[in-house]
Amino acid sequence: MLDFFTIFSKGGLVLWCFQGVRGPASAATAPVNALIRSVLLQERGGNNSFTHEALTLKYKLDNQFELVFVVSGPPWAALVSKCFVFAIDCHAVCSEGLSGRGLLRLGKGRVLREVSSWPRVGDLGLRASLQGFPGATSSPVIFLFPAVTSTVKQALQEALVQILQPQRRVDVLRDVMDAQRHRRPYVVTFCGVNGVGKSTNLAKISFWLIENGFSVLIAACDTFRAGAVEQLRTHTRRLNALHPPESHGGRPMVQLYEKGYGKDAAGIAMEAISYARNQGFDVVLVDTAGRMQDNAPLMTALAKLIAVNAPDLVLFVGEALVGNEAVDQLVKFNKALADHSMAQTPRLIDGIVLTKFDTIDDKVGAAISMTYITSKPIVFVGTGQTYCDLRSLNAKAVVAALMKA
Amino acid sequence: MAGAMEPYLDSLRRELQSPGPAAFSVLLALLVVALTLLLWRLAQGARSSRRAVLLLGLCDAGKTLLFARLLTGKYRDTQTSITDSSAVYRVSNDKGTNVTLIDLPGHESLRLQFLERFKAAARAIVFVVDSVAFQREVKDVAEFLYQVLVDSTVLKNAPALLIACNKQDVTMAKSAKLIQQQLEKELNTLRVTRSAAPTSLDASAAGGPAQLGKKGKDFDFSQLPMKVEFVECSARGSKGEEGDADFEDLEKWLAKIA
């Protein structure tokens, strides 16, 4: 029999609810809320079913009346919701005739053709952007008949801004202050493939932290690439020249913790963190070696570093030039971190640093792909090679530039 | 020039003296256009006047239930909202004025978009806080409140702000006084960290984020340009689903600002 069937409006009010299993009424809200948050809001409408704990939920949206149908039960249960939607649609078409809203529905084929003809959308991955469409095309048509192009553009813009909006708080300084209060260092780990700008952006972030009065310990855990430690040593020297110890109460604001080449990166990171705790550093920035996502032994080593040291923030550094390759990188990095973690809830990538933003023009499809794959925010954007070239992402500006096709 | 206009003026004079059917239809058309323009102007005026009360807050704060209770008085099951809901609410004062209650979704991906859409029409803002989960969520609550308070439209219009500490029916709920103190402390820290954040990509934003409160002094809600009040309420009510909601202070405030 049907385990569970509910109809609720997109505004949040439950219109009807049926629970086959005897249990507290509130037991049904949690899985449905999880469904809404992970599927509908993250525009992952690819397949119409979602599993939460033991319950498999199937859902259907009706845009005309802004309703959502959720059903759980045997395979034929999904037909129930389809029948409901079909009945409502028939009733609507019969009663309203060819009204503006009907036109919008009938024009779905035209909608798809319009969207696929735009060159820029191909870069984003048409799939990613169109998956959001069932929920997005719900504009009420009043007196005017807006052109299909403008309605689709509006809906696409809203869906893209929604993807780029951070799902959690992005305030590194606030979290550093919290860690300072608990007398422990705030640990940030940078990971990514070769040559994306990890060390350069690490230096920029150190500069920003020092400007705000926090002391930084840089852990040189790139023990493979020749010159990696020297690069960080040069950055440390320059940063200390910009902020000399005399102007900060006699203690150096940046220090480098390194153990040369060839050693185990995870061990160096652990020693650096305990050194920082003893010496009272506020932040530890851990620089790791660049590695390709297909290189299994190196991915295992990175996963071990993160699992053992439990950093507060794991930042994936990706360059804006990367294009669709970003999707593959992020998926494999996240998978490696999840596979090699012993914990119940593995530490995955917490945020993204988008670098070399100045080398492309203003249309950045990579930002959308990366945020969509991980559903984690873009924390910093690197726009050059000097210490001041660090920005934060403005979702509306990026989407506006992208849509200016 | 005057010579060229002569025949037209003549025919106009003749039409005015002995109006034919054509003149009537022209006059009627002009009247219809003038009427449409007048109606359009009135509609614009009605839209631009601020009659909306926005219900903002984090996810699960109880905004949709509060919305349903204010309008119907009955308890309704709710899920996470994905879009806004709006309805006309008759305020319980002697004049019986109407305000438009707008319930906005609290989810992180949607809240700013919907705020953007409705902030210009806001006469007042009710910021709903979950008093039970407040201790855990204080940073997120403060961040959203900060984003609302430094918005340029909100600063310009200065709508009345009410912070409704919801879920007071639960014994573990924090009092409004405590919530106010904690929020002031958190906002004090936030304005430092937010102004120190890296500048936004679209650096055309004039001068960066606005300064909240007075420089040099600890942040206080009385430093804001709008009137801020704190009330305690419970959308569920002490008797649960059968009884009434417990929000007289909220209704009184709505009556006051209408």
Automatic annotation (TrEMBL), chain A:
<dbReference type="GO" id="GO:0006886">
    <property type="term" value="P:intracellular protein transport"/>
</dbReference>
<dbReference type="InterPro" id="IPR007222">
    <property type="entry name" value="Sig_recog_particle_rcpt_asu_N"/>
</dbReference>
<keyword id="KW-0472">Membrane</keyword>
<dbReference type="GO" id="GO:0005047">
    <property type="term" value="F:signal recognition particle binding"/>
</dbReference>
<keyword id="KW-0675">Receptor</keyword>
<keyword id="KW-0342">GTP-binding</keyword>
<dbReference type="Pfam" id="PF04086">
    <property type="entry name" value="SRP-alpha_N"/>
</dbReference>
<dbReference type="GO" id="GO:0003924">
    <property type="term" value="F:GTPase activity"/>
</dbReference>
<dbReference type="GO" id="GO:0006614">
    <property type="term" value="P:SRP-dependent cotranslational protein targeting to membrane"/>
</dbReference>
<dbReference type="InterPro" id="IPR003593">
    <property type="entry name" value="AAA+_ATPase"/>
</dbReference>
<comment type="similarity">
    <text>Belongs to the GTP-binding SRP family.</text>
</comment>
<feature type="domain" description="SRP54-type proteins GTP-binding">
    <location>
        <begin position="377"/>
        <end position="390"/>
    </location>
</feature>
<dbReference type="GO" id="GO:0005785">
    <property type="term" value="C:signal recognition particle receptor complex"/>
</dbReference>
<dbReference type="GO" id="GO:0005525">
    <property type="term" value="F:GTP binding"/>
</dbReference>
<dbReference type="InterPro" id="IPR011012">
    <property type="entry name" value="Longin-like_dom_sf"/>
</dbReference>
<dbReference type="Pfam" id="PF00448">
    <property type="entry name" value="SRP54"/>
</dbReference>
<dbReference type="InterPro" id="IPR000897">
    <property type="entry name" value="SRP54_GTPase_dom"/>
</dbReference>
<protein>
    <recommendedName>
        <fullName>SRP54-type proteins GTP-binding domain-containing protein</fullName>
    </recommendedName>
</protein>
<keyword id="KW-0256">Endoplasmic reticulum</keyword>
<keyword id="KW-0547">Nucleotide-binding</keyword>
<dbReference type="InterPro" id="IPR027417">
    <property type="entry name" value="P-loop_NTPase"/>
</dbReference>
From TrEMBL, chain B:
<keyword id="KW-0256">Endoplasmic reticulum</keyword>
<dbReference type="GO" id="GO:0005789">
    <property type="term" value="C:endoplasmic reticulum membrane"/>
</dbReference>
<dbReference type="InterPro" id="IPR019009">
    <property type="entry name" value="SRP_receptor_beta_su"/>
</dbReference>
<protein>
    <recommendedName>
        <fullName>Signal recognition particle receptor subunit beta</fullName>
    </recommendedName>
</protein>
<keyword id="KW-0547">Nucleotide-binding</keyword>
<dbReference type="InterPro" id="IPR027417">
    <property type="entry name" value="P-loop_NTPase"/>
</dbReference>
<dbReference type="InterPro" id="IPR024156">
    <property type="entry name" value="Small_GTPase_ARF"/>
</dbReference>
<keyword id="KW-0472">Membrane</keyword>
<feature type="transmembrane region" description="Helical">
    <location>
        <begin position="20"/>
        <end position="40"/>
    </location>
</feature>
<comment type="similarity">
    <text>Belongs to the SRP receptor beta subunit family.</text>
</comment>
<keyword id="KW-1133">Transmembrane helix</keyword>
<keyword id="KW-0342">GTP-binding</keyword>
<keyword id="KW-0812">Transmembrane</keyword>
<dbReference type="InterPro" id="IPR005225">
    <property type="entry name" value="Small_GTP-bd"/>
</dbReference>
<dbReference type="Pfam" id="PF09439">
    <property type="entry name" value="SRPRB"/>
</dbReference>
<keyword id="KW-0675">Receptor</keyword>
<dbReference type="GO" id="GO:0005525">
    <property type="term" value="F:GTP binding"/>
</dbReference>
